[in-house]
Amino acid sequence: MQPGAGLAAPVRDNRPMHLVIPFAAPLGPPCQAALEGLELPHLKTLLRTLTPDGDLTGHASDLSPLSERVVSQNAFADGLIPWAAMRARALSHTLPGAAWGLVTPCHLTVHADHIAMQDPADLRLEADESLALLQAMAPYFLEDGLVLHFVQTDTWLVQGEALRGLATASIERVRGQKVDPWMPRTEAARLVRRLQNEMQMLLYTHPVNDARVARGAPMVNSFWLSGTGDLPADAPPFLQATVLHSLQAPALRDDAAAWAQTWQALDSGPLADMARALEQLRQSNDAGRPTLTLCGKHTARTWSLQPRSLLQRVGATLRSTPPTALLKNL
To answer: How far apart are alpha carbons 145 and 127 in whole angstroms?
Structure first.
């Protein structure tokens, strides 16, 4: 399950609904100002009806974002949530105990004082382009005992012992952002940095990039490694959750209008759906537990449906905090 492409498939049928919303809190001053006038009626209903179910705290410098720690039940060390091993297991790659990583083909731009990554989704790689690049890169990886496997155009798997215990930053940390703070600096990561340098030289003159440049498309000149590590047999299962990433891009740009508009779309879309499902569950006394997690810069706060008496429900309504005040403090 790849971060950035939805950490888990949407939950349907009789399984519990769990929505996770990263970048729910405003980052910069423009978005903070926009928060004051934001109307989110369905979020208000959910927060009034659901019960607080725990907080998870983190730091802006963590390799693994809070949303990924929530879905993985905070069971792994920072930078070692084994998304690749999970994907390999789902694809029936039968190498018990093997260490894996996710490889994302990308375009890096060198500026005077930093290196930035264009959002890999913007590359819009074709399947034949992606396969040709993988085949060109595979022998270099193999020299270090790393075996590449094609999964989809913007995501490959890599397997090798060098990935065991190698902490890496989530692709969500660098998508459309500066990569310098997130480059692996440990001694164990030297081979990653060397491979990145080698691939830059290899890909610069690759026919796929020649054709892309000729038609005005950005070239693929590097890769990002993430989701590294092994998946222990006794690891707890990842949560069945839907992660809604739409607030990320406007939040990182501090685009107040787009961030507010996206929040309103979430409120009128998936949160309205959850509010309707919640009302149906309450009327039918179903045992399901709709759950909502809002992730800010430092805190991920979760609410779930729990049994409450009439007096407790009335008290919770009277004491309810406005959504905007709550978001401001995440």
So the answer is: 25
Per DSSP, the three-state class of 115 is strand
DSSP3 helix / strand / coil % (the chain, rounded to 5): 40, 20, 40
- Delimit the domains of the chain by residue range: 18-75+239-328, 83-230
Q: Rounded distance, CA 60 to CA 230, Å?
A: 25
State the angle between helix axes of 207-214 and 127-142 in degrees (0 to 180), rounded to the nearest 10: 150
Q: So what's the pLDDT on residue 76?
A: 96
CA–CA distance, 2 with 95 (Å, rounded to integer)? 19
Cβ atoms of 275 and 46 within 8 Å: the answer is yes
Q: Which residues pair with 291 in a beta bridge?
A: 18, 304
Q: How far apart are CA 28 and CA 42, in angstroms?
A: 25
Whether residue 41 has pLDDT greater than 80: yes
Listing DSSP states for 161-200 in one string gives GGGTT-----HHHHTTSB-GGGS--SGGGHHHHHHHHHHH
Q: Phi and psi for 139 in degrees, rounded to 5? A: -60, -35
CB 206 within 8 A of CB 136: yes
Coil vs helix vs strand at 195 = helix
pLDDT digits (tens, 9 = 90+) for 246-291: 999 999 999 999 999 999 999 999 999 999 988 777 665 554 578 9
Whether the Cβ atoms of residue 59 and residue 50 lie closer than 8 Å to each other:
no
Contacts of 95 (CB under 8 A, 6+ apart): 88, 159
Both tokens assigned to 3: 């971060």
Fold of 83-230: Alpha-Beta Plaits (3.30.70)
Specify whether the CB–CB gap between 20 and 293 falls below 8 A: yes
Question: At residue 148, what is the residue type?
Answer: L
Using one digit for the tens of pLDDT, what is the confidence trace for 137-166?
A: 999 999 999 999 999 999 999 999 999 999
Contact indicator for 125, 217 with CB cutoff of 8 Å: no
